[in-house]
Amino acid sequence: MKAAKHLTACTTVLVGKQATVDGSTMIARNDDTFLALTPQRFYVHPAEHDQPARTWVSNQNGFTAPIPSDGHRYLATPNVETDKTGEYAESGINDQNVAMSATESVYGNPQALAFDPLVANGLAEDSLQTLVLPYINSARDGVRYLGQLIKQYGSPEGNGVLFSDNDEVWYMEIVTGHHWVAQRIPDDAYAIAANQVAIQQVAFDDPDNFMFSEGIQDFVTTNHLNPDQDGWNFRHIFGTSTEKDRHYNTPRVWYGQRCLNPEIIQDPQSSDLPFICRTSHKISVEDVEYILSSHYNETKYDPLGPGDEADRLKFRPISMNRTQNSHVLQLRNDVPKASSAIMWVCFGVPAFSPYVPFFANATDTDPSYSLTPVHLDDVSAYWMYRKLSMIVESHYVDFIEQDTDYVTAAKETLRTHVAKALKGAQNFEGDDLTAYLTTQNHRVTEIMRATTTKFTNDLIEKGLTLSRLTFNMDKNL
Questions:
Q1: Which CB contacts under 8 angstroms, 24+ apart, belong to 261-269?
Q2: N or C: which terminus of the chain has fewer CB atoms within 10 Å of its end residue's CB?
Q3: What is the pTM of this model?
Q4: What is the mean pLDDT of residues 46-69?
């Protein structure tokens, strides 16, 4: 029986260090779930040393594997109801400055799957982050490590996995039970993926930029899977190009590329949008956030815009109400490595909520992030930002301008916070630096809680004046 699949629709952005404004590497993704509400928390998993023999057991598909005795400290954003939904740790950075985000769901075509079917009790998304991120020391090492696990256990689903460190950015696509390809994003380039096999031409003689499953070339040749006269296009061989893709997937890639390369005219339904892209301007964290928070803004396809309904509902947007967290994992190269890793986290609907920066070199997160309850409360960050998102969308025309001002002001505040924190970090090292950065993470949580609570209350007060249950005749009546 195929494992239950809860996380089926995400959008990914990857950026090399020479393509960014500050020389950092960035991997980013919207973690979209099947349900509108799948509460998540954000916490720090401590390092482990000399642990007794243990076995990981997935409650999604029965997958089991031994847990190594030693593992790095790492950040994670798992589901709250793990007994019902599975762990799904999804995104984080470990204490070796290795970032990982998993996964971007992808789908192999039936021709390839016929000869290497998915493995029902293999390594799935719910287990993947937990069984990889604590045990890798570089982005390249992450691809190798995961590749060995897929060889050993197989995969029950198609997954795109993001890895980065201070130097390299990799995107790995697992498309059948055992076959995969990973490509390094060139330092001067960016890439966008959206639930469709993205990698194109593969150079098997270029180990610096490509890694792949053992025997994949013979597999394709033996089973006559390459449809092209020339070349070895991974997307063409293993991917799909369907009506669903053209309404659900390719438009998101088109819009992201439109944001970064507005001078290039492309068809939003094209199956040949490029994977590796370059732009004439440097890319910032805010640029990536804009893409992940977008819904075809300033086009006729915006579901919140004034266009015809047929256009507004034609394509699946990037930011959605079921985006449980959106993150940008940034590794800076203009500061010491001990303070260079920052995880920008958005727990609300990205279209309406800010990305809050957390230094990865920390020992915990504020309880408002680490102790998310299953149901709405007035304390947790997840529910605070979800509440804000619902209020703004409910009165979109009346509230969107104020919300835009709130997010814009938050960006300035949060940038200032990071700059001041990094300046202060110069006075610490070792455990003292970790303690200092942990304190800074708590501080930014306090700042945003106060700001967001006041803004939400302001919107509620205004909303109370917008009721349709009113009738004006005389001020005295």
A1: 268/301, 268/315
A2: C
A3: 0.97
A4: 97
